[in-house]
Write a structure and sequence with these properties.
By secondary structure, the chain is α/β, with parallel strands linked by helices. The chain has helices spanning 20-43, 63-72, 95-102, 182-185, 259-268, 288-304, 320-326, 331-343, 350-370; strands at 2-6, 48-52, 79-83, 109-111, 116-120, 125-130, 155-161, 163-164, 177-178, 190-194, 200-203, 206-208, 224-229, 238-243, 248-256, 276-286, 307-316. It folds into two domains: 2-243, Purple Acid Phosphatase, chain A, domain 2 (4-Layer Sandwich); 248-370, no CATH class.
Length: 371
């Protein structure tokens, strides 16, 4: 038997740190990658797809987005089982109750909104589901797995959403805890988890699939689904990682001080395309021409990447040649330039003075170009 394990689709995520047009692309990609997951399930002829929570990013996602998400699953006509996570918990009124009222949940899709064991007799599969019914709980929702019975000869698979205690980084251990020994104590052949957005094997029988489409600048193997092959009960599963993400998220942090640093930066970014989401952080102390070169590199990068987040922390100190050029017209402008240049030696005024000189240089450049 083969199942496809995916999680953390976060449909409806806003991506507020990006420009509106970029955020729209990234939001659409999350639904496009659901289509990729569905096509993968069909191509690999899996017996069932399980989605381990946080299907939606928020409870108030718009109705048309809810409909689009379920439509995106259409390429796979087999069984789907979805559970709510902390973002879309199965509260009395939730995105799931709204989806039911909209009558947009396909007949081949099961949404397990309460703790239960689903039996698929043709697959000889017992699927133990531990959905979240509130955003945060301090109790292990998978605890009932241990006492849950299943027919003889059936594979036992757990489906849950939360933080595996004592295994993930200490600073992310949070409410919604899951015992690190749950697969063993509940006699599970496989435990399919959601919440951690990267693909991660806790042990041979316990895996986080990670989000199907990258959504953050962390290097923890995002944008995958897992194809899990189960043999006889008690035999360790075979797990294959398959890429499903549309975009590659990349971050670059550099300190620059001279033109050659900018050339190196441009070379490092040369392979970025419309398939990349980029975060670039640039710091250092540069002259006006070097700063303009950096801004040109960033402008070109924005034009060819899918989305770009820029963090610039530059101190601009015009060179003596640039200062002379700024004041070459004489008169009042020359006096202003001399005064600003003098203020650069005052630590409390240096940054403001350098920024003013850079702004003056930019103004003079635009004036010449317009003439």
């Amino acid at each position: 038997m083969k199942l496809l394990h995916t999680a953390d689709w976060q449909i409806g995520e806003a991506f507020g740190q990006f420009e509106i047009d970029e955020a729209t692309l990234l939001g659409a990609a999350r639904i496009e990658s659901v289509k990729t997951v569905a096509k993968l399930a069909a191509e690999r002829a899996v017996d069932i797809v399980v989605v381990a929570g946080d299907v939606f990013d928020q409870q108030d996602v718009q109705d048309h987005i809810v409909r689009r998400m379920f439509d995106a699953m259409g390429a796979y006509a087999g069984r789907w089982v979805l559970i709510p996570g902390n973002h879309d918990a199965a509260k009395v009124e939730s995105v799931w109750t709204r989806a039911a009222k909209l009558k947009c949940i396909p007949q081949n899709v099961i949404v397990a909104t309460k703790p239960q064991t689903l039996l698929f007799h043709d697959l000889k599969l017992a699927l133990l589901c531990a959905p979240l019914v509130q955003q945060n709980t301090f109790e292990d929702t998978t605890e009932f797995f241990d006492a849950e019975e299943s027919p003889e000869g059936y594979c036992r698979v757990g489906l849950a959403h939360g933080s595996m205690q004592g295994v993930l980084a200490e600073d992310i251990d949070s409410p919604n805890p899951i015992s690190s020994t749950r697969a063993e104590t509940a006699r599970l052949d496989y435990l399919a988890l959601g919440d951690w957005h990267g693909t991660k094997a806790i042990n041979a029988r316990t895996w986080y699939a990670g989000t199907h489409e990258p959504d953050r600048f962390k290097d923890n193997d995002r944008g995958n689904a897992l194809i899990v092959t189960l043999g006889s009960p008690g035999v360790a599963p075979e797990v294959e990682t398959v890429k499903t993400g549309k975009y590659t998220w990349r971050r670059l942090e550099r300190v620059v001080s001279q033109p050659t640093d900018v050339e190196l930066l441009e070379a490092e970014l040369a392979d970025c395309t419309e398939a990349h989401v980029v975060r670039i952080a640039v710091s250092g102390t540069v002259d006006i021409s070097t700063r303009e070169a950096i801004e040109e590199v960033i402008s070109k990068l924005r034009a060819r990447s899918a989305a770009l987040r820029v963090e610039i922390d530059l101190t601009t100190r015009p060179s003596q040649a640039e200062i002379a050029a700024l004041g070459s017209q004489g008169g009042y402008v020359a006096k202003v330039v001399d005064r600003l240049n003098a203020l650069q030696s005052d630590p409390s005024q240096a940054k403001a003075a350098a920024d003013a000189l850079a702004a003056l240089a930019q103004f003079q450049k635009k004036t010449k170009e317009a003439a």
